[in-house]
Predict the structure of Ribonuclease J.
Amino acid sequence: MSGRNRLIYMPLGGAGEIGMNAYVYGYGPEGKERLILVDLGIAFPDMDSTPGVDVILPDIAWLLQRLDRLEAVFITHGHEDHVGGTGHLFGQIQKPIHARKFTANLARRKLQEKGQDPKNVITAAPFPAMIDAGPFQVGFLPVSHSIPESAALVIDCPAGRIIHSGDFKIDASPIVGEPFDPDLWAEAAKPGVRALVCDSTNVFSKHPGRSEAEVAPNLKPLVAAAKGMFVATTFASNVARLRSLAEAGVASGRSICLMGRAMRRMTEAAVEEGILTDFPKTVSPEEAADIPRESLMLIVTGSQGERRAASAQLSRGKYFGMELKEGDTFLFSSKTIPGNEKEVAHIMNNLSEMGVDVVTADDGLYHVSGHANRPDLETVHKLVNPQVVIPMHGEHRHLREHAKLAESLGRTGLVVPNGTMVDLAGNAPKIVDHVETGRTYVDGSALVGQFDGVVRDRIRMALNGHVVVAVMVDDDDDILEDTWVDIRGLPEVVRGSAPLAEMMEEHLAGQLARIDTRTAGDDEKLEDLIIKGVRKVAQDEIGKRPEVTVLITRLAAE
Amino acid sequence: MSGRNRLIYMPLGGAGEIGMNAYVYGYGPEGKERLILVDLGIAFPDMDSTPGVDVILPDIAWLLQRLDRLEAVFITHGHEDHVGGTGHLFGQIQKPIHARKFTANLARRKLQEKGQDPKNVITAAPFPAMIDAGPFQVGFLPVSHSIPESAALVIDCPAGRIIHSGDFKIDASPIVGEPFDPDLWAEAAKPGVRALVCDSTNVFSKHPGRSEAEVAPNLKPLVAAAKGMFVATTFASNVARLRSLAEAGVASGRSICLMGRAMRRMTEAAVEEGILTDFPKTVSPEEAADIPRESLMLIVTGSQGERRAASAQLSRGKYFGMELKEGDTFLFSSKTIPGNEKEVAHIMNNLSEMGVDVVTADDGLYHVSGHANRPDLETVHKLVNPQVVIPMHGEHRHLREHAKLAESLGRTGLVVPNGTMVDLAGNAPKIVDHVETGRTYVDGSALVGQFDGVVRDRIRMALNGHVVVAVMVDDDDDILEDTWVDIRGLPEVVRGSAPLAEMMEEHLAGQLARIDTRTAGDDEKLEDLIIKGVRKVAQDEIGKRPEVTVLITRLAAE
């Protein structure tokens, strides 16, 4: 058995959520496979499950333990959920990162921000060019998406060819970047494809996807009809949309001002790499201040309601000297990613209070998705005609639905969630291992494990409040009288009269006066007793069970 | 001026959010208006803004200060955002509560739960019957919605008639309860209507609303085609839907089992009040355990992903002996209310992992909205033909859009957000006052004010972590050496080596060794110094700025 070469596939992130993509491929004898990593993305935290966390990374511990077997990293495109982890994790990985030039530009910036040498990012030419990586040859197969230069990967090894779709849509006129090229894909599929590892995001969307080119004709009349300032927000990485928006502004005689760090970074990278050659001239916010509002268009970050992005700032008041007012128009040229609804609605309501007319893309006029819908997935299954379809880039329900779609088209569809290792070398794919996977939190400058208890404790304090008790014990194991209680995140005064902390102090004083020195002498027993006492008062008085921290100080004999 | 009688309208909740409805009307000389309250609802908390809170109530302080002028409370229908506050607040209000019989049944249960006399809830006959309440006569005008016996209110006083729509849709065949009756509405409008205070929920939905009767024909083939157990979740208060679901089950030879407290409470109330006369016979979960799964249909609570409701429990494993498995079907006969997407998706993914087929209402086949869409609002504006339309039951953006709609149809549209008092007695409506409004949190058994800082502190602990420091000062104002630091919600160990708490203790020890007795003798200065010290270490080591609590114990001379 061990003499046979395996072709393994194992997602460490991205097959169980939409975000933090990280897929491992390996070829070689069991346990000695030479490895490549496809994508290294981040996910975004939320208050419900990850309060205080800055960024979520896939837990790549499995890979870090096998770094000697890792040949290289390949990044399909420049979205944060695919490239966002490179900066955070390159320090530990230290292997060449391959990407097409626009993506490489973004990855280099990320390495630089973390003090790493950007030369570790190598610009790849598109397929049919192939890059050697141990037993693998990898080609970047251009594909349309909502960011320039997205690529599927053609992954060859002695056991056959795999096509890893990356994020994609079928778009014949993507405005910026290459259209989807069925002939090129057919050529890539020609030698026979063992597995298509495929984007599942829009598997529940039943209509064929729409082209980026459909948006621009709708934007022009909208901008032309607007009276005051026109503000548009969209995903900064959607360079095609930025261009359509800016051109609609220029057509209405407006000067274009880009606001928000990501907006500038993306356009800068696109210009540097020669992707964006004819973007309208822009003005700075300072210059914009002198332009009459009806001659101005702002294109801003924050379409997902991010608190510190330009959209949210503008909805709260002045931002870089700009201030919206009655008669202005604000366009969300974007969809709201599930989970961000409240934040986006909050901005819309603020704008409404200012008298700003808010226009959304709910009718489909001002936004199109970047992912292949169900009929488009069918098209690609047929075009690639793989033996096996392995859905990725989706929650479990997306993966399952996509696998069922593959089966309904007469192919094997295999759900391979994060941490599941499948061997594709034999006649039929075979699940060969399960590995612990999870998430790593970037929290300030620290990395925190998902199961370290840090975030769990934060959630508990947020739900239950936190009571702190300081108690002193002298060298005879007698409790000193001044036991202190401090509460945080609980009502200070109960029913308009007694302060809660004082009631707890009183209760503890009574309790501690009665205990024997055996209990007083044992930190654990003492702590237990105090926690119970505090919780009893809290339960009786306010019907809650707070978190409790007890600080016991033992005075040494002098 | 003061001799003239005013007809005032002021929302205390519901005009600025979808939730916690509470609208005040008054008639009389300025400052002496006799008042009525329409609806007294709750809103639901979330982790982002109200962690740990159980229920949100409108802040009715303004009304409580004028209780001697309050005549009565009128509840339009039995949804929690309209009736949910009665139990919590009746103790403070102590005025008669009027409602139609089904709503009254629910309100009585709420009073009873809080130990209040349910006789304070008075069952109202429908319009043209009118109830006297000081200078007001109020009639319950039946209207279709997604719960039985919803009513608009016809509110008469010497200054004219107001129609307060409550929540409504235009449904000619609502399955359970009265169809929308345009003739009755025309009759109510006939004497002339000064103001229509009107539901704004669906003002952005451009197509005419659909009837509840459209759902049942889609349910039958779906249930009939299902192989294993069939589980359906919907809003428990949608009694019509419960009936359609149960009938689809029976038609496929399935026994019906209701699961979840709200499901039982709602059907019980509907049966008690004679609204639900022919609901199929149900079986208990215990009985259901003996029925083959292909002959069973569960109708369960938790369509919004609520953690403790039946849907979530079933998605996690066994619940009352029931357990889902491969081949079962789970239908969400509901829409996901914005903000609940992640919780609902979480359940769907759990079910997907079990191999359960999840069916949603995304196609519109298995759910219809309970609110009037934009064309339906136009219909009602025309039918009622008021002088003024005042949008309510909406976020600011809904209110503004609805007012614009009214203006576009040639009527005055007036945005009156929470806390704004408008006088409707004169020829033109006039804003006469602004009152502080807000939210009151039910937190365990305590009531907490929105600005009390309790929830703010919880959020800060969740975002930043909490460091607790205990320091002792002797009677000479010397710091004792054993300063204790305890951390919660922060990484215990930094960069794999030094424990964070110890690093803080060390830093503080160094700092405190150098201070003079003036600082040591001043609680505030000492606390300040310690907080700064702790934050410096945290910033340097983990890049965070934690919350800090300092407990200073001063030892008295013995």
Notes: Residues 523-542 of chain B form the longest helix (20 residues).
